Automatic annotation (TrEMBL):
Gene3D superfamilies: Globins (1.10.490.10), Nucleotide-binding domain of ferredoxin-NADP reductase (FNR) module (3.40.50.80), Translation factors (2.40.30.10)
Site feature (Influences the redox potential of the prosthetic heme and FAD groups) residues: 83, 394
Region of interest (Reductase), ranges: 148-412
Record lineage: Bacteria, Bacillati, Bacillota, Bacilli, Bacillales
NCBIfam families, per database record: PRK13289.1
Function according to Swiss-Prot or TrEMBL: Is involved in NO detoxification in an aerobic process, termed nitric oxide dioxygenase (NOD) reaction that utilizes O(2) and NAD(P)H to convert NO to nitrate, which protects the bacterium from various noxious nitrogen compounds. Therefore, plays a central role in the inducible response to nitrosative stress.
Species annotation: Scopulibacillus darangshiensis
Co-factor remark: Binds 1 heme b (iron(II)-protoporphyrin IX) group per subunit.
Annotated residues for binding of NADP(+): 274-279
Protein name: Flavohemoprotein
Domain remark text: Consists of two distinct domains; an N-terminal heme-containing oxygen-binding domain and a C-terminal reductase domain with binding sites for FAD and NAD(P)H.
Length: 412
């Protein structure tokens, strides 16, 4: 890109900050009207909640700000690229996206979108697409070369285990009996389902909730509230209610860059809320197996003991590993919880209590959970002046904001 193109794109940043959401809403509406087959790829619940629209607006804005130094946003790009590879986005999709994005910019900005601006954005989008395609091609090639895996493969549900009143685990094994690929603790798989009564295919990502090397993939799925006006439960509730042992599911190879650093020079702190503990369980098991000498603090928040999955597993690990300290926080403990005295705190995790249970703050922090929970933990760590390189987190679904003017990215 020449300097003039860079200057024009950067000059559009204030407009994108003001009208970015409108542009992305227009983009998706036009995209689906022109290419309804893409309903089979995009999460329509996130569309209704406008999560994908906000996520795309953030990504376009970040690209415009750093158009002359796209390497500055590679961390975010890699996280998105992992998801694209996982769900099956191909290089041929990028021209379609570009055409519709440019249409949306013109649609929203009207006469303000001059030929000069549109030409600059066409060039800029081409450069942005090249970055994404290159990373995604490399990820596909890695999966193919290491594991001989291309696209989705059939997996049989080997076991189905109720972990709590709201969370059920599915143990998955390849139908053809092939050896499972190694994965990194914290990664996820995509599941593609054709659900009876649903017009389009649904694809969802679920974190792997057990350690690598077990001979199976395990996902642990929370049943969603059907009363939610935008229910996430189209897929999750189908898994709970309709998928049985012996059924076959289409699954893509593990993906994601929210992974554990095994360097044991710092203590490890794993903090989770609700079903957000699924990637953390994988991390915990891998950490105690590979770096048993590392000091590990496990903190988990749940509504109460009935919704708390994996409590027995974590307590057992605590008893087996002297360098592991575990703490549970229950929002509304039951009488049975009070009798068992399993939890360390009632209510919500706060900075004062967290400072008491984390003895050495000079640690690596990983956390995952619902958005309000994530905001609270992030705010606490920033108040403690923890370095960004030691803060690692992941949202379920599209990336969003942890704090105002602070874009959430996978990793530090």
């Amino acid at each position: 890109m020449d300097q003039q193109t860079i200057d024009i794109v950067k000059a559009t940043v204030p407009v994108l900050e003001e009208k970015g959401d409108a542009i992305t809403v227009s983009f998706y509406n036009h995209l689906f009207s022109e290419h309804p087959e893409l309903y089979n790829v995009f999460n329509q619940t996130h569309q209704k909640q406008q999560k994908q629209q906000r996520a795309l607006a953030q990504a376009v804005l970040a690209a415009a700000k750093h158009i002359d130094k796209l390497e500055a946003i590679l961390g975010s790009v890699k996280g998105i690229a992992h998801k694209h590879r996982s769900i099956g986005v191909k290089p041929e999709h990028y021209p379609i996206v570009g055409e519709n994005l440019l249409w949306a910019i013109k649609d929203v900005l009207g006469d303000a979108a001059t030929d000069e601006i549109m030409q600059a954005w066409e060039i800029a989008y081409g450069e942005i697409a090249k970055v994404f395609i290159a990373i995604e091609d490399a990820l596909r090639e890695e999966v193919k070369n290491r594991h001989g895996w291309n696209g989705y493969l059939p997996f049989k549900v080997d076991r189905k285990v109720e972990e709590s009143s709201v969370i059920t685990s599915f143990y998955l094994k390849p139908v053809n009996g092939q050896e499972l690929p190694e994965f990194e603790a914290g990664q996820y798989i995509s599941i593609k389902l054709d659900i009876p009564g649903e017009k389009y295919t649904h694809i969802r990502q679920y974190s792997l909730s057990d350690a690598p090397g077990t001979g199976y993939f395990r996902i642990s799925v929370k049943r969603e509230d059907a009363r939610d006006p935008f229910p996430e439960g189209v897929v999750t509730n189908y898994l709970h209610e309709s998928v049985k042992v012996g059924d076959v599911l289409q699954i893509s190879a593990p993906a994601g860059d929210f992974t554990l650093d095994h360097t044991p020079d710092k203590p490890l702190v794993l903090i989770s809320g609700g079903v957000g503990q699924t990637p953390m369980m994988s991390m915990l098991k891998q950490a105690v197996n590979q770096t048993p000498e590392r000091n590990i603090t496990w903190v988990h928040a749940a509504v109460n003991g009935t919704t708390h999955a994996f409590a027995k597993d974590v307590v057992k690990l605590d008893q087996q590993h002297k360098n592991l300290q575990t703490f549970f926080c229950y929002e509304a403990p039951t009488e049975s919880d009070q009798e068992r005295c399993l939890y360390a705190k009632t209510g919500y995790i706060d900075g004062e209590w967290l400072a008491q249970v984390i003895i050495d703050k000079n640690a690596d922090y990983y956390f995952c959970g619902p958005k309000p929970f994530m905001k609270a933990i992030y705010t606490i760590l920033k108040h403690w002046e923890i370095e960004d390189e030691n803060i690692h987190f992941e949202f379920f679904g599209p990336q969003d904001q942890l704090v105002e003017k602070e874009t959430a990215t996978t990793g530090a």
